[in-house]
Design brief:
Elements: H1 11-62, H2 90-95, H3 107-110, H4 118-121, H5 126-130, E1 156-159, H6 186-189, E2 215-219, E3 253-254, E4 259-264, E5 275-280, E6 284-285, E7 308-309, E8 314-319, E9 324-328, H7 333-339
Parallel strand pairs: 1-3, 6-7
Antiparallel strand pairs: 1-2, 2-8, 4-5, 8-9
């Protein structure tokens, strides 16, 4: 019998097969990435829907929307201007099996019972609360839900209105807005819906512009290189503090009027020689967020005050009526500013 000799692939044939596989992978990868992003975006929208429902359930029980947090200490203890709410009796209270004073915590803490997180809300140890990574507080397009060096984060911020006054621990102080905004007065400091904890909270019937026209919560603007990770707790002023107790600052709330100026280098780290960019405080993609470094290339902590996100085309939001919407990055500045005020009597509205 004659033996049949099998021929092997030649080198050229093998290279052709590899090239075909590479082309197919190149064609499929963008489609896979689009499907993955669509799923992440939908999950992010669902998180905001749950947050919006929690706000409404809180308001049904308490009569007002939850508070935005503040700096300081309980009455009778020495005051502090920065950078969170502290109870000097915390250790003693916790050791006795009692929660410390958390009056200055932000809305993220107060809605916990309405998102099935009673165990975190009722935890005695402050460290347990700080370390709790609440899944619906994270956008899956940006990062996984995890704690960093003992403190978790949140990718969604409340709407504080037109302009922002950082800190302001005293009950009658308006403070200064900074970052190029006009001087803050008591009137325009408090025209949002998530207000600092030592002023009167907002009831839904005080939203005179209409709940369907007023922003409640949206994704916060954060450069991909400034996102807190397991290796770094975050050097962006809007992502460097614990999720539930950052005082009254950009970790908790953002605003939507005026302009913002910062060093910009086309999405790359911006050193001292970079161009100063001035933009309206409309939502922006994360890659355009501030990422400032010093002459040695080390990160410089910055605080930006506007909304934005990691999704292509727009930012995910929930409005005061509970509706979840994607607002495009091309939204008109005046229209967005109108959406961020609850009592501006504007005729502009966001329909997308």
């Amino acid at each position: 019998m004659r033996s049949i000799k099998r021929g092997a692939f030649t080198l050229i044939e093998l290279l052709v097969v590899i090239a075909i596989i590479a082309v197919l992978i190149g064609l499929l990868l963008p489609a896979v990435q689009k499907v993955r992003e669509a799923a992440s975006r939908m999950q992010c929208s669902n998180h905001l829907k749950q947050i919006g429902l929690a706000f409404h359930n809180y308001a049904s029980v308490n009569g007002t929307l939850p508070r935005g947090g503040r700096d300081g200490r309980p009455s009778g203890q020495p005051t502090q201007n920065c950078c969170n709410w502290t109870d000097n009796n915390q250790a003693k209270s916790n050791a006795a099996g009692v929660k410390d004073d958390r009056d200055g915590y932000s809305w993220r803490y107060w809605i916990l019972p309405y998102i099935e997180q009673d165990n975190v809300y009722n935890a005695i140890e402050r460290a347990t609360v700080y370390n709790a990574a609440i899944k619906i507080y994270y956008c899956p397009s940006r990062r996984d839900a995890e704690s960093y060096s003992g403190s978790a984060r949140c990718d969604y911020n409340g709407n504080a209105g037109s302009y922002f006054s950082n800190g302001t621990p005293t009950d009658d102080s308006a403070g200064s807005s900074g970052n190029g905004s006009p001087a803050v007065t008591e009137t325009n400091t408090f025209d949002g819906v998530v207000l600092r904890s030592n002023v009167a909270p907002v009831a839904l019937n005080r939203i005179s512009d209409g709940t369907s026209n007023t922003l409640l919560v949206a994704e916060k603007w954060l450069h991909p290189l400034r996102v807190a990770t397991a290796a770094a707790s975050g050097n962006d002023g809007g992502d460097n503090e614990v999720w539930c107790n950052a005082g009254w600052d950009e970790c908790i709330v953002r605003v939507g009027a005026g302009t913002y100026s910062y060093l910009y280098n086309g999405g790359q780290p911006a050193g001292p020689g970079s161009t100063t960019r001035t933009i309206p405080r409309t939502p922006r993609p994360d890659i355009e967020a501030p990422c400032v470094v010093d002459a040695a290339g080390k990160p410089v902590t910055i605080w930006n005050q506007q909304f934005g996100g990691p999704h292509p085309g727009g930012v995910n939001t929930v409005f005061c009526d509970g509706s979840v919407r994607t607002v495009t990055f091309s939204v008109d500045a005046a229209t967005w500013a109108a959406a961020c005020t609850r009592n501006g009597n504007e005729t502009l509205s966001i329909n997308n």
